[in-house]
Amino acid sequence: MRHAVAIERAGDYQSDVVRPALDRLLEPFGGMASFVKPGERVLLKPNMLAAKEPERAVTTHPELLRQVIGLVREAGGIPLVGDSPGVGGIRRVAERSGILAVVEETGAEFIPFDETVTVRGKGLFREFQIARPYLEADRLINLPKLKTHEMMTMTCAVKNLFGAVVGAAKAGWHLKAGADRELFARMLLEIYLLRRPDLTIVDGILAMEGDGPGSGDPRLCGLLLAGTNPVAVDVIAAELAGIPKKLLWVERAAEKLGIEGWDRATIDTRGVPVDEAKVSPFRLPHISDVQFGLPRFLKNRLRHYLTSRPCGNPEACTLCGICRDACPPGAITIQDGKLAFDYHACIRCFCCRELCPEGALGVREGALLKMIKKCV
Known about the structure:
Blueprint: E1 3-9, H1 15-26, E2 41-46, H2 62-74, E3 78-83, H3 90-97, H4 99-106, E4 109-112, E5 116-120, E6 127-131, H5 132-136, E7 139-143, E8 145-149, E9 153-155, H6 157-160, H7 169-177, H8 181-194, E10 199-209, E11 217-227, H9 230-241, H10 249-257, E12 267-271, H11 274-277, H12 296-306, E13 308-312, H13 322-326, E14 332-335, E15 338-341, H14 351-355, E16 361-365, H15 367-375
Parallel strand pairs: 1-12, 2-3, 2-7, 3-4, 7-10, 8-10
Antiparallel strand pairs: 1-11, 5-6, 8-9, 10-11, 13-16, 14-15
């Protein structure tokens, strides 16, 4: 089966730039009317990771959301906007990111993900607690942000669907699968298979490179992507950002599981040619781990030396406790007026760095990892 991914340019977030770009982007698919029928309730799922301003490139930009809401309305659909942020409460995140203002101005319905449904898994994991609105909407439009990710290397179409897991349950999944990138990638794919989006539109106008998804640097790319297969969309997004396949944990897991979209040879692009849309390679997160593929007994013995681990920056830390409360294994405490880490319990998911509002958590590399980096 072949998969289409469209690419278009949009140099900024002005409405008279974004709307025409979206029209061109969706033209190869027949426009929004091909995905939305009159009277259907259409859930728009942006990235609402944390309460950060739009210019920080942490969340899906509100202007892109505004224009997609308009397209859904023109097709006769009823737009809903929902997500479950990692920390901070949905309303605070929506206010700070500018998303709530757009929802109120457009009259869309704001749907916090606070009610769950137990869904039987279709693979390795037996069941998931998924937000009820995510499952019950007539249509689902995925609106991810193109960003680097300290654990998965890249977060885009597939990873954005982790937002269907509600609130504190995310920490539980990090604890269950987060110590192994391959296992975590498989979990993300199994969530995707529970409810496949009808359409994915990627906000790559202002992307993020470096230590994403919450502490990286904004990167102006001026791009929008769209497709019906999130795995294929991610493959093209990574190609445009210069991220090598060997670092794409989700796509590698998709290949092993035989989930369509991982094979570049099956993807046809539309709109701006790939070679013209490519940007200089993204600055990637630090190499945080070189232990995967080792036998378990070696992993356990060498883990401290072959991985990076979070550390506090006392000058920037306000001791707000967000990292402590968000840490899946409870490896962070506050002692004697500073953060203390239990590195034997730490699973290196970097949720603490991802969610810290002050950017007060750094990275300390193991001795063997430092030596290996000098040789690559």
